[in-house]
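Lab notebook, page 48
Experiment: co-folding of the full assembly
Goal: obtain a model of how the components sit together before planning crosslinking
Operator: M.T.
Materials (sequences as entered):
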Amino acid sequence: MRTKEFYHSLKVDKDLCYGCTHCLQSCPTKAIRIVKGKAIIMENRCIDCGECMRACPVHAIYVEQDDFSQIFEYKNRIAIVPAVFIGQFSLKKSYEEIISAIKETGFTDVYLAEDSVEIINDIMLNDYNTGREKPLISTFCPAIVRLIQIKFPALVENIIPVKSPADATAQYFINQTGKKDIEHKETGIFYVTPCPAKIADLKVQSSNKKTLITGVINMNTLYNKVYHILEVKNKSKNTKPQAMQTALSAKILQWSLTGGEAENMKGRCLAIDEVHNVIKFLEKVEDGEISNVKFLELRACDHGCAGGVLMTENRFITVERIKHRASKLPKSVNKNINTKEYQNLYKNITNINIEARPVDSLDDDMEQAFLKMKKIRHLMCYLPGIDCGACGVPDCQTLAKDVVAKKAHLSNCVFIQRGMEKNYKLSPEHSIKIIEKIWGEKRLEKNCNKKGAENETI
Amino acid sequence: MNFNYKIKGGDFSAAGRASSEIKKILKKLNVNPKVIKRIVVALYEAEVNVVAHADKGSINAEIDSEKIRITVVDEGPGIADIDLAMTEGFSTASSKVREMGFGAGMGLPNMKKNADILNIKSKVGQGTMVELITFFKS
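Observation: model returned without errors.
Model output:
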């Protein structure tokens, strides 16, 4: 039984979506279909990795976020900002200048999300030392956790149960100040992120009352505000920057980049980034071809969070800037935290439950699944195998699967249509109706407003 | 349902392709992941054996709703003493094959450990036929 559905932060703007196959083909979990000329994201298959958003030529896929102005409903407004945000700005800007500019947007306190990585690292190493089956897999990237839940259910038990750095940092902050202000809505904690999966993850946690974070802000929203303050508003002013609230270390700064975790784990560790690379590697792990690897750091984005979907700056430049800054910092910094506080924090951030939600099985009943597979293989004898996506489904195999699941018709395939027309089983009018059902009305008419056409208006 | 795969001798980079495909099929059939793992391990060993020792071979997997029956047939040197080959650590793999990380003498024992039924028929100088049967529900 699937107890709760995933929450998704990726949405399709039906006005902007003009129905093409870019997102359809780029989705690593085949979660997209086209119906009536618009992309539909299937809730049970989407992992919020944002590949569709990157692929969309007209920016019709967007990330839902909380309204920025809601922060002002709180007296204490805490921003939890990822270290990659620092990498969005030139090395000439000091930490203090950037943090002060974030405060100027309206926040009273600013913490780096990775402020808590030391304790997270401890939890990961302790799990390593329990001697349980390896490789252990990091929970850092929520898109990857979701990927494993749906596509690699047998590997769910390899995941180290620990909350995200942002959640842990929020917990740390609350432990310092007490819960009262949060409960009385005096304090609001807002997480700024370049990641649709992190937003989705937090929404799920908050619907289950498992996070202390009040809201999420897209990183590019904050970037625009901070950039304006740094480069326009304060350019001529001589404001004195305020001090940082996070004691920085190279580990904190680099944790979210590729290799950030692997470098701080024991034994043979591998860091793999980009969702398709991760899928290929997890197949190998499942096939038993990978031996002696103790820890896997897996990230859905190329270059880790520096390649985040909502990132503004080029990922290579971001990485170079962060590495440069990190080279001038101590390797790690220990927090001033007593044993009781530490134990309390430890308990809180390991309180997480990750379940498998497989989506690839054709039926819960093996006998039925077997019959369905037989039908799919039979249909594949007729489908052309060119994976054009003109049926509104990513590829022929998936169309066959959808047909067997009664979610699509075989005649949605343009090649099957030609065959049916030849045998007088389908009238040309009917085949046009089928196309319009998938790709929208008037789709076969001349339209000079589309991208690349004479009167392009995009 | 029948699934067929070809194996080329010496092509270590392709070893594991059939077991990976079979794994994907079994996942779709909602077979218990632990059972899938056993099937995949046994088949992978069989694949590597063909790649390491034979000129070529083929795999046939016959799946029904209760079990999988995999037959791996090769044109290779054959096994002179099957009982000896079943001993852990016994290997006739060349040093070249060992250098690549294969040939530890665990192939057949591992197959026996992971498949419900293992049958081997072999003729020296002609080839080997390995049959692996695993039931989805124990």
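Interpretation: Helices of chain B lie at 17-28, 33-53, 82-85, 95-99, 107-114.
Next step: discuss with group before ordering constructs.
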